[in-house]
């Protein structure tokens, strides 16, 4: 019993001393472990160094939009001078990774332009049920092989891919764009002979010194599989519904300062928000034999024409003041576009309208917010943005105002066609959480007896976009 009491007393004295030592202001306390750094990506390393990995990204862009309608616009049968709609411009899942020293796998799944009228039977569907739940699809599915380990000299890939010619905006990284939306005219065959600008291709790309290059041979889709009724053969060129030829394309960039990332197949960053010093000159092309057709001297004569598109451009994206975080981003490009005789196509991004009572020269999709976006002729496109210093909003993020202009001179349109946007990005957490307010001003047209389009006035739209990206 005495031994037990002695042991208890010893323990009690030890605990008391320990408590006294802990409470003493001169006692050393055990340092708390530093909090773990917050992760900004979903990445699984396949080796210890992390050079082999697989990662996933998620993107969602939600639009709230007010639009002044083109004349004659109807929405589900009702005339509408203006519209308000809510939609998902893009919802995407990317999965990609460096599987070993030589192999990259890249997949992207998602949907685009999902608003209230998704699946609406706008053409030739009398008595045919529609389905709003068929929008998501694979955008990319490509495998790529790096020929020399740790050297970007040559990468060979194949699959469904956006690796493209013509320009950097023909293969944009939509999560990092400067303006609210990309200049879609640069995705020259979008949803005509491709799948939302993706094509079944085999390609070679890489970087050698300051040169960044990509060349591809693509197997275009027939225009009949686009999901809409193709235009009938007529005096003005449209994509041919007979014959099948491969498409050839390429893009060369000369990089004066920092090199742009070459890891992900195809996609090119919109703005680096001052994190890199970039100045590039670029030139690109797309060519396809007998891609278009039209009638000749008589309605029974068929004339085939080649698709020939090329562009030259300059891209600037660099810090202005590293201490404050200010930066500038700018692009200026000239596009020479030969789609054949008098080719012209209207397009309205996530069009909020379903029909029109004022058809324009046999062209489709002229309602809502549409304008002549694609055509034989030329386009000058420019954009500029300025990232204001961090002292403007402090911890609340950063502001980046921008302006852009698309000035088209199309053979079938009288005079120049100018579409102008001004906007403001609130970069709450860089591109990961971004709120954009954008105003667009565009022309609307009527057809003259000659078939030429003549401007009649202008309309506008205001869009508030919220982007979440991880």
TrEMBL record:
Instruction: Work out whether the entry's keyword set contains Signal.
Output: yes
Superkingdom of source: Bacteria
Which stretch is the leader sequence? 1-18
Give the keywords, sorted. Signal
Q: What is this protein called?
A: Short chain amide porin
